[in-house]
Amino acid sequence: MPRILLTNDDGYLAEGLGALADELGRWAEVVVVAPDRERSGSGRSITLHHPLRLTELKPAPRAGSWHLVNGTPTDCINLAVHFVLADRPPDLVVSGINHGLNLGDDVFYSGTVNAACEARQFELPAVALSQELGERDMTDSARIASLLLRRLVAEGPRSELLLNVNFPAAEIRGVQVTRLGRRVYRDVVVAKTDPRGQAYYWLAGKPQWDDAAGNDQEAILRGFASVTPLRMSGFTDDVAMEQLAAELQGLELDAVPGG
Fold first, then answer.
1. Is the sign of the CA dihedral 151, 69, 167, 160 positive or negative?
2. For residues 131 and 220, what is the distance between their CA atoms, to the nearest angstrom?
3. Would you state the pLDDT for residue 255?
4. Which of 35, 152, 243, 253 has a 20 to 30 Å separation from 26 between CA atoms?
5. What is the DSSP letter of 160?
6. Residue 164: phi, psi to the nearest 5?
7. Alpha helical stretches, state H, the chain
8. Distance (Å, whole) CA 20 – CA 99
């Protein structure tokens, strides 16, 4: 039976986590290591300045074994790999189902997506799952996710596999492989004054999307689940390296004032 590590950033009580655990538990050994509270927008944050607590829930609230961490999704992956699953690593790491989409540039802020990225640091195949907010529950998304993940496990997922999957709030018409879209927020910071006359600021604003054909936002608008392959490497700008090397050639550090 394949072993699946399941986490999220909405906390262990989230509907999407429970629905997914039940579906995956039909054909896999599910081990849940999730935050003890909501950690949305935590990105790749990791806890360094206070100890972490790992608590096993007995009996487990849903299918699988459940462990809570008083930290971020990244912390959860680290504790799972080094302690909870130290005897045998998982065959697949799954993060979600997140309450709310993680499209385009938002993947850099998402705790859901970055939990999957942390798993890739350990050379584990990983998938992040999210659903658009709306009236529809997580049942259909969890079922379709289970079908997708079972296919990946049967094929023997590559260690470099990293997928970002999003489901629309409306009825799902199908599955489409996409690229990341682009979004720009307008009026991001709202300035207000509290009753004591002190200024405070709220991060807000509405995104403007580039819904070009073939990207994840366009797929969601058309009612399709988007499946976007991501990569961890490739941030280095090779062209800029050559230009920068030429610009810095012959730089004399002893010419710096005070040097």
1. negative
2. 10
3. 59
4. 35
5. T
6. -115, 115
7. 15-24, 73-79, 111-121, 139-155, 216-221, 238-248
8. 12
76-128 pLDDT, tens per residue?
Answer: 999 999 999 999 999 999 999 999 999 998 898 899 999 999 999 999 999 99
| C-alpha 10, offset from chain centre | 11
Instruction: Give CA–CA dist 97/94, Å, rounded.
Output: 9
Contacts of 147 (CB under 8 A, 6+ apart): none
Query: For the chain, what percentages of helix, strand and coil (3-state, to nearest 5) are there?
Result: 30, 30, 45
Instruction: Look at residues 55, 51, 63 and name the one whose alpha carbon lies nearest to residue 34.
Output: 55
Q: 164, exposed or middle or buried, with CB in 10 Å at 0-12, 13-18, 19+? A: buried
What token pair was written down for 9? 């950033």
**Nearest one of 67, 49, 59 to 12, comparing CA atoms:** 67
- For residue 56, the cross-strand partners are 67
- Distance from CA of residue 113 to its chain's centroid? 1
Could you give the dihedral angle defined by the CA atoms of residues 217, 131, 99 and 121, in that order, rounded to the nearest 10 degrees?
Answer: -80
Mapped onto helix, strand or coil, the DSSP state of residue 112 is: helix
Task: Please name the residue that has the structure tokens 């689940």.
Answer: 225
Count of CA atoms in the C-beta half-sphere (13 A) of 6:
36
DSSP assigned state of 44: T
* CB atoms inside a 10 Å sphere around CB 25: 18
Task: State residue 172 phi and psi, 5-degree precision.
Answer: -85, 120
pLDDT along the chain (259 residues), means of 10: 96 96 97 95 89 96 96 97 97 97 91 96 96 93 96 87 95 94 76 94 75 87 95 82 87 65
Q: Find, among 134, 86, 107, the residue nearest to 44 by Cα.
A: 107
